Amino acid sequence: MKVSISGYPRNGEQRVKVKIHPYDIWNLDVALAHIIHPALLMLKQDKMGCPHVDDVDVPDELKYSPIGWDHDIIKMQPKWDYVLDKMIEYFALVIDGKDTVGHPGIQLFAKHFSSLWT
Questions:
Q1: Which domain holds residue 108?
Q2: Three-state secondary structure along 52-109?
Q3: 96: pLDDT confidence band, cut at 50, 70 and 90?
Q4: Domain count, the chain
Q5: What is the pLDDT of residues 12-38, one digit of tens each?
Q6: Is residue 17, in this structure, part of any structural domain at all?
Q7: What is the reported pTM?
Q8: Radius of gyration of the chain, Cα coordinates, nearest whole angstrom
Q9: Are 42 and 87 in contact, with CB atoms under 8 Å apart?
């Protein structure tokens, strides 16, 4: 598998080249995990914002409180960090060939897929 994605040139068209060999699909989950894991690590390191995270996706200490909106803003970044950490942990387990049954990382990845931006 070979993937090349260029930066955004002035004309706004990004060049994307993807080459997938037949043997790449034998363990496609692991092959994709090798791409997704470092991308999530970089996203967490370089993020410039955070999307909304539902209370059902985080432990009690990160859930919103009845105190008010100002107080809840403080929890937005830790909630997103928690979700990213679970995703990162899940894909690391896939790469290492460990058991991922019941791990919330893949459900959080699916739920927040369109929120993976900086």
A1: 26-115
A2: CCCHHHCCHHHCCCCCCHHHHHHHHHHHHHHHHHHHHHHHHHHHCCCCCCCCCHHHHH
A3: very high
A4: 1
A5: 788 899 999 999 999 999 999 999 999
A6: no
A7: 0.88
A8: 17
A9: no
